[in-house]
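Notes to self after the Tuesday call (sharing in case useful).
The group wants a holo model before anyone commits to mutagenesis around the pocket. I volunteered. Ligand is guanosine-5'-diphosphate. Logging inputs and output together so the record is complete.
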Amino acid sequence: MDEDCDYLFKAVLIGDSAVGKSNLLYRFAKDEFFLDSKPTIGVEFAYRSIKVGDKIIKAQIWDTAGQERFRAITSSYYRGALGALLVYDITRKSTFESLKKWLKELREFGGPEMVVVLVGNKSDLLHSREVNLEDGRSLATLEQVSFMETSAKENLNVEEAFLHMIHRIYETT
Ligand code: GDP
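Result:
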């Protein structure tokens, strides 16, 4: 345990390639940006500390660094993770259709208590929308996970999505 925090959590970003995972993480972690890279295992992660009540929580958030392109996300990526942001791109229906596969993988490798937040990213590109807000909402309800649309580009809802996940992890642990 680090001395400068009360809790240390691991959370992961998952979803198809180019949905905006790295940009979301960059937005969220930017203030205290510390992106560490492990090219050998193909992951990157960033930390951010937040205060909840009188506790300091340090979230360590892992990004795939592109390894999903090779369909090679391994169980070690999920190991110990208490939360996941499952990201799709609202302008590419195929990334929404992949969610079933990602959810299956999450249920298989993540713990049963894992906090999952479904994120429809690129909400700034409304003119190219292929996935309705309602479709995201319905899937989230069906899968009993939280849901938000975000824009990493315009910095809309990004903070909210990560903080929601972190608060829920804190509440459930
Ligand atoms: P990753 O492969 O899931 O990590 O996706 P990246 O973060 O590398 O983003 C893929 C592409 O989508 C890049 O060209 C980004 O600039 C773009 N992108 C990411 N987030 C947004 C967003 O919210 N809005 C728009 N318009 N483009 C975005």
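Two things stood out.
Strands lie at 7-14, 36-38, 43-52, 55-63, 83-89, 115-121, 146-150.
The first strand starts at residue 7 and ends at 14.
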